[in-house]
Amino acid sequence: MSLPEAVRWSADGRAVVILDQSRLPEEERYVSLSTAEAVAEAIASMRVRGAPAIGIAAALGLALELSRSTALAPEAFWQRLDHATLRLRGTRPTAVNLTWALERLRGVAEQNRARTNGEVACAVYGEATAILEEDRAMCRRIGEHGLSLFPEGELRVLTHCNAGALATGGMGTALAPVYLAHAAGRSVHVYVGETRPLLQGSRITAWELQRAGIPVTLIADSVAGFVMQARKVDAVMVGADRIAANGDVANKIGTYTLAVLARHHGLPFYVAAPTSTIDPGMPSGREIPIEERSADEVRRGFGRLTAPESVPVYAPAFDVTPAQLVTAIITDRCVLQPPYAKTLRAVGEVGRELVPAGGVRESGSGSGSGSGAGA
Ligand code: MRU
């Protein structure tokens, strides 16, 4: 299965290469970025987007910045680390993966504080590479766990935004079960909403799925209820930008609406995310910072005036789906079922081992295949 890569090292390891998603679907253009500032700009302008992908891009960008700063005096080197971290962290507030990845690198740098600049940079570079590789493995595990929820028959899901390969370092989160089912020869069909206003569903997900040979039907966002009413899908499957300790889920604006619709129609509403998206320090969805985007993304989407020029616009980029509307949270470690508070705490301690607890259902019919970090 050949999937596009959202972010990777260049062949010589001296640049971060991203697929410029702002140009999709018209053009598949890869761009080389060689400073943390260039990576920060690419994240802020959503040329690379999706929670895991921006965490990875930020990590690679920071590692790159340190690698090119080793000739500085130690004090200036550490200042560079601080500045680059702040700049990258400030790009987008909602996805916790960004902060998570940068904090992980900071921890490694601190562990090596007594060493030379070169040694610190080398350790951070290795950690950033590990974040990329781990995410690839986590996506596969999410796919396996997600697939265990659909034991037989055609896989017919509705998804939103893009939680596929282009949002991650691997085969995606919400789309990973779809890719694995297709690879196994099972019949699959994905409905995807356009995802106004930036159209990640139509520009990115529809493109990514078609490129992989997956049957996909694009709908305007407002068609979702009608699709559910007509039983054209069996489940809703979305990604997440941040999962609070109580199981509330921040994801692309419009996700909450789908969850309400799914509940009304008796359809399962699944959230698929790596453990790096769980934020045990965020008590509930109410505290999650929600990014607001420019009014012009709504008023003049892609250049054409589609509303009165001066009309006030409210443009949150994400919403919060309350935990009680989430049927299950599919992680790289296991499938969590409500109530989520206790089990999320166990799984969300990233880099910490899963403590089996009530409500954690290992995937694979209890075979235990869900434990341990994804490989
Ligand atoms: O604004 P975006 O395109 O970065 O939003 C992306 C999403 O909301 C995705 O659903 C989420 O990051 C999950 S990606 C696996």
Describe the structure.
- By secondary structure, the chain is an alpha/beta fold.
- The chain has two domains: 7-136, Four Helix Bundle (Hemerythrin (Met), subunit A) (Up-down Bundle), CATH 1.20.120; 139-362, Translation initiation factor eif-2b, domain 2 (Rossmann fold).
- 37% of the residues lie in helices and 14% in strands.
- It has eleven helices and 15 strands.
- The strands form three sheets. It has an eight-stranded mixed β-sheet with strand order 6-5-4-7-10-13-14-15. The protein has a four-stranded mixed β-sheet with strand order 11-8-9-12, covered by helices on one side. A three-stranded antiparallel β-sheet has the order 1-2-3.
- Helix 2 packs antiparallel against helix 5 (117-147).
- The longest helix is centred in the middle third of the chain and has 31 residues, at 117-147.
- It starts with 6 loop residues before the first strand and ends in a 14-residue tail after the last strand.
- The structure holds 5-S-methyl-1-O-phosphono-5-thio-D-ribulose (MRU).
- 5-S-methyl-1-O-phosphono-5-thio-D-ribulose binds at residues 49-52, 95, 161, 163, 167-168, 173, 200, 239-241, 251-252, 317.
